[in-house]
Amino acid sequence: MNKDGLKDVIIIAYVDAGAGPSIIDPFPIAGIYFQKKNKTFTTLSALDQAINDKGHNQTIKDVIQYVSKQRINVN
User: Fold this and answer.
1) pTM
2) What is the CA radius of gyration of the chain?
Protein backbone atom coordinates (compact mmCIF):
# COMPACT_ATOMS: atom_id res chain seq x y z
CA MET A 1 0.00 0.00 0.00
CA ASN A 2 2.76 2.45 0.84
CA LYS A 3 5.19 1.14 -1.80
CA ASP A 4 7.85 0.01 0.67
CA GLY A 5 7.87 -3.60 -0.56
CA LEU A 6 6.44 -4.98 2.68
CA LYS A 7 3.13 -6.81 3.06
CA ASP A 8 0.19 -4.71 4.18
CA VAL A 9 -3.29 -5.92 5.08
CA ILE A 10 -6.62 -4.28 4.23
CA ILE A 11 -9.65 -5.30 6.25
CA ILE A 12 -13.24 -4.33 5.49
CA ALA A 13 -15.83 -5.40 8.04
CA TYR A 14 -19.54 -4.75 8.01
CA VAL A 15 -20.82 -3.36 11.31
CA ASP A 16 -24.33 -4.06 12.54
CA ALA A 17 -25.21 -1.06 14.67
CA GLY A 18 -28.03 -2.30 16.83
CA ALA A 19 -31.30 -4.05 17.23
CA GLY A 20 -34.90 -3.13 17.86
CA PRO A 21 -36.43 0.13 16.68
CA SER A 22 -33.05 1.83 16.25
CA ILE A 23 -31.64 -0.84 13.91
CA ILE A 24 -29.38 0.50 11.17
CA ASP A 25 -28.37 -1.38 8.04
CA PRO A 26 -24.88 -2.85 8.31
CA PHE A 27 -22.19 -0.51 7.01
CA PRO A 28 -18.53 -1.03 6.05
CA ILE A 29 -15.55 0.03 8.12
CA ALA A 30 -12.11 -0.28 6.49
CA GLY A 31 -8.70 -0.37 8.11
CA ILE A 32 -5.16 -0.94 6.93
CA TYR A 33 -2.37 -2.70 8.81
CA PHE A 34 1.02 -1.62 7.47
CA GLN A 35 3.94 -3.98 7.92
CA LYS A 36 7.01 -2.32 9.35
CA LYS A 37 10.64 -3.25 8.65
CA ASN A 38 10.78 -5.20 11.93
CA LYS A 39 7.86 -7.36 10.60
CA THR A 40 5.31 -5.99 13.10
CA PHE A 41 2.18 -4.20 11.95
CA THR A 42 0.86 -0.75 12.71
CA THR A 43 -2.18 1.30 11.80
CA LEU A 44 -2.60 4.98 11.03
CA SER A 45 -5.86 5.93 12.70
CA ALA A 46 -6.14 9.28 10.89
CA LEU A 47 -5.81 7.52 7.52
CA ASP A 48 -8.37 4.85 8.47
CA GLN A 49 -10.74 7.59 9.63
CA ALA A 50 -10.34 9.50 6.36
CA ILE A 51 -10.95 6.35 4.29
CA ASN A 52 -14.19 5.73 6.15
CA ASP A 53 -15.35 9.36 6.40
CA LYS A 54 -14.89 9.88 2.65
CA GLY A 55 -16.64 6.62 1.73
CA HIS A 56 -13.63 4.90 0.19
CA ASN A 57 -14.42 1.79 2.24
CA GLN A 58 -16.76 -0.19 -0.01
CA THR A 59 -14.21 -2.42 -1.74
CA ILE A 60 -10.50 -3.23 -1.63
CA LYS A 61 -10.17 -1.36 -4.93
CA ASP A 62 -11.73 1.77 -3.33
CA VAL A 63 -9.23 1.64 -0.47
CA ILE A 64 -6.25 1.10 -2.80
CA GLN A 65 -7.27 3.97 -5.09
CA TYR A 66 -7.62 6.38 -2.15
CA VAL A 67 -4.39 5.33 -0.44
CA SER A 68 -2.38 5.42 -3.67
CA LYS A 69 -2.82 9.21 -3.65
CA GLN A 70 -1.52 9.62 -0.09
CA ARG A 71 2.00 9.98 1.29
CA ILE A 72 2.47 7.30 3.91
CA ASN A 73 5.49 6.69 6.11
CA VAL A 74 5.23 4.06 8.84
CA ASN A 75 8.90 3.14 9.47
Assistant:
1) 0.85
2) 14
